[in-house]
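Hey,

The postdoc asked me to send both predictions to you directly instead of through the lab channel. I've kept everything plain text so nothing gets mangled by the mail client. Protein one:
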Amino acid sequence: MPQDVVGSASFPISPQQKHAKLDFLQVPPVSSYCSSSIIEFDGASKGNPGPAGAGAVLRTADGSMVFRLREGVGIATNNVAEYRGAILGLKYALQKGFKHIQIQGDSKLVCMQVQGLWRTKVQNIAELCKVAKELKDQFVTFQICHVERDLNTEADAQANLGIHLKNGEIQVECDIQKPEGITA
């Protein structure tokens, strides 16, 4: 049964989850009980422009499932990396069948431009914004909000790991927990 997304999108990770063995690139499909997701996104660039990475974390509304994503962005600015993190999360959420999305990141630029509240002045940023808007239109419900950096640490960690990947290379970690009352 889908739940409305309310409140903070930061979920604590239990000590067991922190040390769990995570499988890369072998991600099971999302079950039919789950249609809402919270996406946390971030980007990192060492040099601005410099080696860059994108990161995203997907969580169900009840916190029972976690996908950690990272992508190499090549040489890019932090704004490009931020957009790539948002796009990475949105694409993955669509691929996994999520219908209701709340997305958050510490890039005010991305959040305001995707909402249409700020203009895009640079061509490559305008193109990335267009992609993000096209993706958002594919969800039944969509909400984007800016959060402070200290509420975005997991996505930040994924973006910094993405710096070490080749441009376009994506890594996925999953940690799936079944909610109470759901049987296999």
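Protein two:
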Amino acid sequence: MQSIFIAILSIFVCFSFGFLLDGSTNSYSQFRKWGGGTNGSIEFEFKTDQPNGLLLYTDDGGTYDFFEIKLVEGALRLRYNLGGGAQIITVGRDLNDGHWHRVRVQRHEDRTYLTVDGISQMKTSRGKEFNFGRYSTNSDVYVGGMPTWYNTKLTLLALPSVIFEPRFVGAVRNLIYADTEGGMPRRQETRPKDQRVSCFMISHGLCDVH
């Protein structure tokens, strides 16, 4: 009975306060497609003490468009392509301080904004068409790392180098975006049968809500 209670408590804590990614080979979490369109947004919070790591990746199934969010020496870097060439936006520093940080990517046609803890930077994409791929063929959203099966199917990645990025070690919570075309943003849950993540337990002081 005690073990059942602990399991239920763990599930509740994970659902309410986020999940842990330990950086191991199979450490990642998979979420439904982002219905980004031309004016979509995606946001989440993270906590880590590591300066480098892949936080989030999604693409158009291997053609041009992609969004990659990662920590680079404690700064948050968004690299993306909407068909007119890759763009990079970097915001923040010392974000590996063990505190929660809020990230938001917002698109408005050719403009893309990256906001971290209320501080924003913007870049403008080249080209004439700014839709994020096609919803029917876009990839799922991956958090913390990429599935190892991509190692033998790099042609399915618009940014093959993502497979070599260091995996994120830390906690992620409140992943919010529209998972249908033209839908409203909502909190996302991991794909069914996803057993690659586990919760930070309260005893480690990492399931707080500060």
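Summary for protein two, as requested: The radius of gyration is 17 Å.

Thanks,
C.
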